[in-house]
Amino acid sequence: MQIARDILLRSYRSMRTIRDFEERLHVEFATGEIPGFVHLYCGEEASGVGVCAHLSDVDTIASTHRGHGHCIAKGVAVDGMMAEIYGRRTGVCRGKGGSMHIADLSLGMLGANGIVGGGPPLICGAALSHKLLKDNGVAVAFYGDGASNEGTTLESLNLAMVWKLPAVFVCEDNGYGEATASSYAVAGTQKARAAGFGMPYFECDGNDFFAVYEAAGEAIAHARAGNGPAMLHVHLSRWYGHFEGDAMSYRANGEVAELRNDHDCLKNFRKSVTEISLLDESSLDGIDASVRDEIEAAVVAAKAAPLPEPEDLLADVYVSY
Amino acid sequence: MAGTITPITMPKFGLAMTEGKIASWNVEPGSSVDVGEELADIETTKITNGYESPASGILRRQVASEGETLAVGALIGVLADKDVSDADIDAFVEKFQNEFSSQAAETGASESAEPVVVEVGDLKLKVQDSGHGDDTPVLFIHGFGGDLTNWMFNQDHFSGSRRTVAFDLPGHGGSSKNVGDGKPATFAATTAALLDKLDIAKAHVVAHSLGGAIALELAKSHPEKVASLSLVAPAGLGKDINMDFINGFISADRRKTLEPVLHYLVHDKSLITRNMIEGIIRFKRLDGAVAGLETVAKACFPDGHQADDLHGALENFTGPKQVIWGENDEVLSAASAKGLPASVKITLLPETGHMPQMEKSADVNAAVTQLIA
Amino acid sequence: MSKKSFRQAINEALRQEMQRDPRVILMGEDVAGGQGGSSGVKDAWGGVLGVTKGLFTEFGPDRVFDTPITEASYIGAAAGAAATGLRPVAELMFVDFIGSCLDQVMNQAAKFRYMFGGKATTPLVIRAMYGAGFNAAAQHSQALYPLFTHIPGLKVVIPSNPYEAKGLLIEAIRDNDPVIFLENKVMYDDEDEVPDEAYTIPFGEANLTREGDDVTIVAFGRMVNFANEAADRLEKDGISCTVIDPRTTSPLDTGTILDCVAETGRLVVVDESSPRCNLACDVAALVAEEAFDALKAPIRRVMPPHTPVPFATVLEKLYMPDSARIEAAVRSVMGYKAKQDA
Predict the structure, then answer these.
(1) Is C253 on the interface with A (CB under 8 A)?
(2) CA nearest A139: which of A118, A110, A114?
(3) Pick from C1, C163, C205: which is nearest to B174 by CB?
(4) Which residues numbered 206-245 in C keep a CB inside 8 Å of some CB on A?
(5) N or C terminus of chain A: which is more exposed, having fewer CB within 10 Å?
(6) pLDDT tens digits, residue range C309-329?
(7) What's the CATH code of the domain at B350?
(8) In this complex, is the C-beta atom of C18 within 8 Å of any C-beta atom belonging to chain A?
(9) Which residue of B lies nearest to C205 if distances are taken between CA atoms?
(10) Quick one: pLDDT at residue B105?
(11) Are C279 and C174 found together in one domain?
(12) Which residues form the Dehydrogenase E1 component domain (chain A) (predicted)?
């Protein structure tokens, strides 16, 4: 598979940004400075980035409660996201959404979503917009293995097929819905579910950027060509708890350590590209350093940013009322 | 004549009228009335109108009470001499009511002629085309913000021996909302085209307010189409215009804010009915209505004054011509009726506002009748 | 202008807005009806009560979408489409079905704008039938407008006659916020003079259908007509009522309600929805808080009992507020005498 150098660099940078963003949040959250709760995407970076590498601002994605990675992969500004998570007026949602509602519709980012299974129906609508407005766009719903059991998701698979929508349903299967394993909560298989709706099914290893990139490319091309929706099942691993502060007492000791050692999508990426001399170590190191600075700057700026004003409380409930 | 019982029924002031409400009785039961004396005030879909007694006698019964809404033709009172017994009157009322309800059931309310839509170029105009006969037709042109029902107390009066036509100007009532440049000359061109479309070669023109300016433009551009001019509180003969009325009419969108604006139209403020206000609000909600009014106001009344001086058009028109004005007009001052050429008959109506054709319909109808006879 | 039924008024509003703006689309269960059926007729129903009849034939399959019977997915799709450039009108058939898709309305469409910091615009209309009087029983008869009124971010419209229905629906379609548009299913054949042209009635402006001096009656939707009937009967007995049709429960024209209560000093609120936490409670609280000094008598609410809507005609009749009950409530507030201080 041929991937242009600029796409590789951009994708690596995107994955590295997500990793550093999330790791930093993990540290900062523990200080008590970040309000609310956050759900981290560490370990899953290749999925969001591998899918979004095939999308432009015309295309739409809907995300989940674990949405930071999708936002960064779709191009949402990191400083605006950080400020949002700190509840600042300079945040992408002016401090009124927080971690679970980061959105930027101008970039086709239809929002993280606090409701499990909230995204797939919305993506049917976005796909309908692409189809009727004839902008050649594709709409992508990211959802977890937990959400794969929601009625909204199953209804959406059906509706997308009935209306032959340019939609891709990306099931990010990280093995856990909150504290309950998918081995317990998911009956049958995602593959069989897709087949039940007559929907093309693609599957890949989410720790391998190249595998995701290739499978997502096929699924998205299928939808973009007007052939109707497709499902992409990405096998992933979640490195942190459901939310920050989750002691993960439901996971065996050493499970996460092993994931970090043996299934790190960033390590895998670096190994792959340097082995065959696609990219050299120094350019990747340069990206790492640049991202570190960017995240540091975003945190410093967020902490110094102004808080929302009292009048913001009443603003933007309606366009007009 | 001894023993005669005269039924007093809900009058039909205009074609569009199907029912009326007794706003007030002006004669107590037991009092005598003469022909032409105001028996009651009747609230219509527009303004409240005085109902003049069709006969002389003693008002023996008020069959309908104040506040009651009745169909046209329904019994509202009974006139009779004093020697008619109460029992006879009771019997008369009972018989009338029985016959009226069965008759109403038979004919329904289908008899009133509905306005039609006439296409003139790109425009669709709502036209009330009534009456027939050999006499020269009468054309009614309403004013700014008005519509053909402004003539509800007048059009019927002339429909006995001739064709009468009232219509909604572009941008008004049920006509297309495209007003073009909004100038009287443009409306006059549309009016001329409408007459052609209706196969009316020549008509007596009765026009109100801004419609007056349109009539004068019509007389200027198409003198052969105008048999006579009856201008009711016309625009085009003065500089001043009450911009509080114009701007208020355009901007007010609720009953509360519109009602005081409409008070400028009449001398007796109590004449403005809820239905009239509601009707105007409903018109203004139509797509394009307010934009049309704004265009007309801008074209006709830039800088708060009337743009067009049409004294010349009035002077040059050689047919019979008259101006009718309410002395208490608060929109276009009756002072403009002064200093007009002697060939123009002037009628000034006391205690009358900007809409004499509604407020003093009998006087206006008489003046027009006299001019066109 | 001609006489049109409530059903025709809504159909005409949809047609005119679809003609005006190609982004306006229609979706719902059997809004056309007949897709894939053995007769080949594709505009078979035009909605379960024929309200959208003819629109599929006129606008075709790229504007009018029959959906599977999956409310969550298509109401959610309508929200998603609204946030991404279309102006969908989704029909929920019976408002009672909101139970299957409340998340899409409450947590998604209603919240986008606020939680995305003002960056989303969701011009969505959800039409649904509401109301008892059809022997449709507990799951097809509710008047759930308080539920929607409760949710910030939604606008809620309840037209009381065909004229109001057309103007308010066009306003709803042109509005840039999510709007819940509730049609009383008993009123579809009601007739009224309705202009042929498109027109709009602004939200948040109450309509006074009667103006009087003695009692203010606030009524919603079909109840406005019952209130008018009661007011007309009371007028003959010398009791004059103001009847307020708020038209929209969100936004609510609180100014007009307070002004009228200040003039009459007495308030009766008529609400077809279940009595706890309904609009009657809302209006009563407003007046008690803001116009206490104007009140000459306690506020009276005319409402159904706190039960599901029953099926049998005799029970449903007992359940529903009607003009006789409104009349009795008005007479009771007129007859109120304050107790003397001990």
Answers:
(1) no
(2) A110
(3) C1
(4) none
(5) N
(6) 999 999 999 999 999 999 999
(7) 3.40.50.1820
(8) no
(9) B254
(10) 52
(11) no
(12) 14-311
Is the domain of B97 the same as that of B179?
A: no
Which of C75, C103, C116 shows the shortest C-beta gap to A111? C116
What is the rounded distance in angstroms from the CA atom of residue B146 to the CA atom of residue B126? Answer: 13
Both C221 and C272 in one domain: the answer is yes
Q: What CATH number does residue C246 fall under? A: 3.40.50.920
- Say yes or no: C262 contacts chain B, CB-CB below 8 A: no
Q: Are residues B89 and B127 in the same domain?
A: no
| Nearest C-alpha in A relative to C36 | A162
Residue B2 has pLDDT above 80, yes or no: no
CATH, residue B73: 2.40.50.100
Query: Half-sphere exposure of B60 toward its Cβ, with a 13 Å CA cutoff?
Result: 24
Half-sphere exposure of B153 (CA within 13 A, CB side): 24
DSSP state of B222: -
Give the nearest partner residue to C195 out of B253, B255, B286, using CB atoms.
Answer: B286
Contact A317 C77 (CB under 8 A): no
Q: Is C171 domain-assigned?
A: yes
10-residue averages of pLDDT along chain A (321 residues): 90 98 96 92 97 98 97 97 97 96 96 96 98 98 97 98 98 95 96 98 97 98 98 96 91 93 95 89 96 98 97 96 94
Residue B110 pLDDT more than 50? no
Q: What is the DSSP string of A119-143?
A: HHHHHHHHHHHHHHHT----EEEEE
Chain C positions touching B254 (Cβ under 8 A) are 205
Q: Minimal Cα distance from C171: which residue of B? A: B285
**What range defines the domain where residue B291 resides?**
116-372
For CA atoms B329, B334, B336, B342, give the dihedral sign.
positive
B and C: number of Cβ contacts within 8 A: 27
Q: What is the ipTM of this complex?
A: 0.95
**Catalytic status, residue C306:** no
Question: What is C41-90 written as a DSSP string?
Answer: -SSSSSSTTSTTTTHHHHH-TTTEEE--S-HHHHHHHHHHHHHTT-EEEE
From chain A residues 181-210, the ones with a CB under 8 A of any chain C CB are none
User: CB under 8 Å to C194, separation ≥6 — which residues?
Assistant: C1, C2, C3, C4, C8, C9, C12, C162, C163, C166
Find the residue in C nearest to A113 (Cα).
Answer: C108
Quote the number of domains for chain C: 2
Distance of CA B246 to the CA centre of its chain: 19
Distance from CA of C39 to the nearest CA of B (A): 40
Q: Quick check: helix, strand or coil at residue B231?
A: strand
Chain B residues in contact with C208 by the CB 8 A cut-off are 255
C200 touches chain B (CB under 8 A): yes
Give yes or no for C271 touching A (CB within 8 A).
no
Total domain count, chain A = 1
Distance (Å) from the alpha carbon of C217 to chain B's nearest alpha carbon: 18
CATH of the domain at A285: 3.40.50.970
Nearest residue of C to residue A313 by CA position? Answer: C114
Q: Which of C113, C140, C247, C301 is catalytic?
A: C140
Band of pLDDT at residue C267, cut at 50, 70 and 90: very high
* Residue in A93, A91, A313, A112 with CA at minimum distance from that of residue C118: A93
CA distance A19 to A12: 10
Cβ <8 Å between C176 and A105: no
pLDDT tens figures, B290-314: 999 999 999 999 999 999 999 999 9
Query: Please, what's the largest Cα pairwise distance for chain C?
Result: 79
Please count the residues of chain A: 321
Q: Which of C194, C223, C254 is the last residue of a domain?
A: C194
